[in-house]
Design a protein that fits this description.
322 residues, alpha/beta, Rossmann fold, eleven-stranded mixed beta sheet, 11 strands, 19% strand, globular, serine hydrolase activity
């Protein structure tokens, strides 16, 4: 009996929390500015430092802002915090070494817990607050819509979708790019585009799938959808066990961040499939006549479509924040 509880604890918890969505959840947020924080990456000679900033008063941090540069806004997932940002430390270093940029980690941890269903309800609160803040930065001349790159993991990937929708509807601003790392599936599978991340939420939306049909969404929803090692669990380096059959899914979900970071150093290429049917049949594989697409931030905007990416990472992930 204990084994059954353990095996189904993850999805059972998510299903239960989905059923507990309450209209009162938003009432608990008395001051959004106190529940959502922004952390700017400050580059030092020997190390990086995270500095909590107020986007409404960026003049105080002028010396740390790179003018006329891309702004990366990074969003963690359900149960996470700023330390779980999908732009990992090694990726921050690679980005800062290769280009002038501003990297902002968005901490919405207070609204990302405890129940998954309530966290879903809070997504729009986060999207609107961040959208308003970005608009103010834009009015100050420090950022333009074509220099906005949103990066989200799991439920954070759904947040950036609603952020893109909100910015377009209220400010007529459309983010340049969205990189969605294994967008959350539960609560978002088989729903209309306006209820989840969609290709219209930015000028270019790249979606990376690593745990489809379990924790991550399975169907293609971006301009470009890259299915890493088949797009499902278990990913290389992830193992389940009899006591917890979903540990492989959790690890594979988290692996999207590792593989995304790896793409800054390794050239990982996806092979374009002729159709969704071909991909699901397992018949999409290498050919000199097929179009290809680079995984990650170096992708120069690939032709729209579904891509099968074969890559390896023999590193176990031990992080349960999804």
């Amino acid at each position: 009996m204990v084994q059954i509880v353990t095996r189904f604890s993850l999805f059972g918890f998510m299903a239960l929390s989905l059923s507990m969505i309450q209209s009162s959840s938003s009432k608990e947020v008395s001051n959004t500015s106190q529940t959502i924080s922004f952390y700017l990456e400050i580059r030092k000679e020997t190390h990086n430092k995270l500095k909590k900033v107020d986007l409404n008063h960026l003049d105080e941090h002028e010396k740390h802002i790179k003018a006329d540069s891309t702004w990366y806004f990074s969003f963690h997932g359900w149960g996470g915090s700023v330390k779980d940002s999908p732009i990992l430390p090694n990726m921050v270093k690679a980005l800062q070494k290769s280009r002038d940029c501003n990297i902002v980690h968005v901490d919405w941890s207070y609204l990302a817990k405890p129940w998954y269903g309530i966290a879903i309800e809070n997504i729009k609160i986060v999207a609107e607050y961040v959208g308003d803040a970005i608009n103010k930065v834009s009015k100050g001349g420090k950022i333009g819509e074509m220099r906005i790159h949103l990066v989200g993991f799991s439920l954070g990937a759904q947040v950036v979708g609603f952020l893109g929708k909100y910015m377009q509807a209220k400010y007529n601003m459309k983010p340049s790019r969205i990189t969605a790392l294994d967008p959350a599936g539960p609560g978002f599978n088989h729903v209309e585009p306006y209820e989840r991340l969609d290709s219209q939420d930015a000028h270019y939306v790249q979606v990376i799938h690593t745990s489809g049909k379990s924790l991550g969404i399975w169907e293609p929803i971006g301009h470009v959808d890259l299915y890493l090692n088949g797009g499902k669990a278990p990913q290389p380096g992830c193992k389940g066990n009899k006591a917890n059959v979903f540990s492989g899914a959790t690890c594979s979900h988290q692996m999207s961040k590792k593989l995304f970071a790896q793409s800054m150093q390794n050239i990982d290429t996806g092979i374009k499939c002729t159709s969704w049917k071909e991909f699901e049949a397992g018949e999409c594989y290498g050919s000199q006549t097929r179009q290809t697409c680079l995984l990650g931030l170096e992708d120069p905007k690939c032709p729209e479509g579904i891509y099968n990416v074969t890559m390896l990472l023999a590193t176990e992930v031990n992080n349960n924040n999804i």
